[in-house]
# Entry
Amino acid sequence: MNKFILLFSQSYTNKLKAKSFLITTLIMLAGIACFFMWPTISSWFSSDDKPMTVAVSDQTNAQAATYFHSSKQIKFTPTTRSVHQEEQRIVKGKTDALLVLSLDQKGALQAELKTKNPLQLTDQQMLEEQTRAANQLFTIQQLNLSAEQAQKIMNQKIELHQKVLTKNAENGKTSGQKSTATLVSYAVAFIIYLFVLSYLSIISSEIAAEKDSRIMEIIISSTSPVTHLLSRVFGTLALAMTQFIVLIGGALLMARAFQDGKYWDMVSTLLSELTLGYTVFAILFFFLACLLYTLVGAVLGSLVNKVQDVGQAVMPVTMLLMVGFFIAISGMSNPDTMLIKIFSYVPFTASMIMPMRIGATDMALWQAFVSLVFLVLTIIGLFLFSLRFYRGSVLTYSNGSIIKKIKQAILLSK
Amino acid sequence: MTLSAEHLTKRFQNFLAVDHLSFKVEEGEIFGLIGQNGAGKTTTFRMILSLLAPTSGKINWRDHSIRGLERDQIGYLPEERGLYPKMPVEDQLMFFGQLRSWPKKVLKKEISEWLERFDLIEKRKVLTETLSKGNQQKVQLIASLIHKPRLLILDEPFSGLDPVNAGLLKDAVVSLKKEGTVIIFSSHRMDHVEELCDHICLLKKGKSLFSGAILDLKKQYGKINLTIRGPYDKTELAALPGVQSVTKEKEMYRLRLHHEHDARPIFQTLAKNGFIERFSLDYLSLEELFTRKVAGKGE
Ligand SMILES: Nc1ncnc2c1ncn2[C@@H]1O[C@H](COP(=O)(O)OP(=O)(O)OP(=O)(O)O)[C@@H](O)[C@H]1O
Ligand SMILES: [Mg+2]
# Structure
């Protein structure tokens, strides 16, 4: 036990202190910071910081110009000058654009925009949005509704509440909950993908290096193969969790600090829409996925002869991971396909796909539980199997396929 | 006896790496395992370390299976460098000491003492990979014996060491031996083996050609190395009865005799010519014995 703690903390602290770990963590934090500060950053680079000035020539006799509201980006000013005069001003650069409002024969609002140069896409979109809103307001106004009635029409939103009539079936989730869960599950799948990808090669390189330099012979002969295997697996897992906590913690802090907590509110509403069951399963799946792949990485690391061979050995595993990730992405648009159902039970991909099914479909939770049990059994099975040849794999230096090496290692472990 | 192997055999698939090997090592004794490349030395060590299980036969420690010997009581210097390249020397030794359950405080003192002894004290904060090969070997050696093991296994400990450092290593090994440690090592350098070992085992392709005291091995052939200095002629010496071969080395003649008892008549013949500057009769050196044994039919 003491030796386990020694080996564990050695594995953990060595990797924690490694420059590569510090650098990747810092880069990731910087990436998150960029994401949160994007509005600020993009405003630094945006071509003009002055608002676009738009003169509004109202020829409707219905005060349609009052429906256009100035914002940071666009400043509307009603004008009484003639269209021709304004056009001259635009050419001279005194105003950026002229918006001419008029009514057609049926009494519908018509808008015409005159500019010197073609508009930037964002400005164009913003103007279109404004015009559409103004048109709506104008139409409502023409119907002589009260302000309250008008407000009601404008802010109407409808949600379809589902009620399943079969007994035992769970009540359907609202589409809001489903889309939140889809989004969060996508994030979970992405994080699993990213983490497993990097930690898989971290642990296999660590063990391959120890094997290559024969330190493993010393360690295994002074403790036991199990102690070595477990200390490396949990050392790596602890490192992954450390990084996870740092990144998530950093992200939350930044969400609070930047943009007046706008993102913080978004995150907290997002989280409040998640059910407890979903959260527990998502965390379990994340943790177990890391455990499974770390174990696989450890075994592969012990089988290769040189650190350089690690990349090649973990290749099939990263492929598997990619398959899982792409299936998870396909679930963003439709989480109910057969493909998703099948792969949500495959232990190597379940963690990336099952959370999405739990959150975004009306699946019964026992299915998630079954998938979780498969995953746990796979981990236990793999662990017990690897113990059969871990001692021997230290002494295999032959070339050949992984299967051949495992066979040889089993013989040597007897 | 403390460590013993009885009919130790290791078969890899259909390759016999160690074949019915038997030997005994007493407490406070240095035992040398010698043999050509691929003779099975490392394989034997790995079986002693329980890294490999013997196909048949057994290894005992004080009349019980070696597996009963506490892991912390064993020290092991692997054949190839087994250190963390990116770790400072001091941390490295601390790690290996702790791996054998020694407390940090005691280790700190031991480490400085050993580093001092091996002239590495200025290098203690240096990353191991930046050390020269010989210095790494010294660090490796300290790592294998820092915990004062009862059984010390050294696989090629002298590789890469210059004569001064080889001397330091020998001193360290001898002082451990005096404290009662059982030391078993392999080497290709027969001079070191001859100097250090009490008993040896000569391996050829997994088979033991000889196992026992070096002197006993020498006695098998007797004193048949004769060195003479004086005003003689090579052909004249070669013609003497009982002389197998003559080689001239500087002003010395080295004669190989058929038998030890051929020496006396030769002395008498030469003495007739008067004063003999040098006449010395010796056993074969271990090196010569080794090549003889290994090249021979293996008896
Ligand atoms: N894991 C293994 N699988 C198959 N054969 C092996 C294995 N380990 C060693 N051998 C074979 O056993 C024989 C003895 O090897 P060993 O390493 O014990 O030799 P050695 O005496 O230490 O040689 P050297 O002086 O070169 O270190 C060699 O022929 C080697 O190829
Ligand atoms: Mg060897």
In short: Chain A has two domains: 52-147, 173-413. The pocket of adenosine-5'-triphosphate (ligand 1) is lined by residues A 395, 412; B 12, 15, 17, 35, 37-43, 79 (CB under 6 Å).
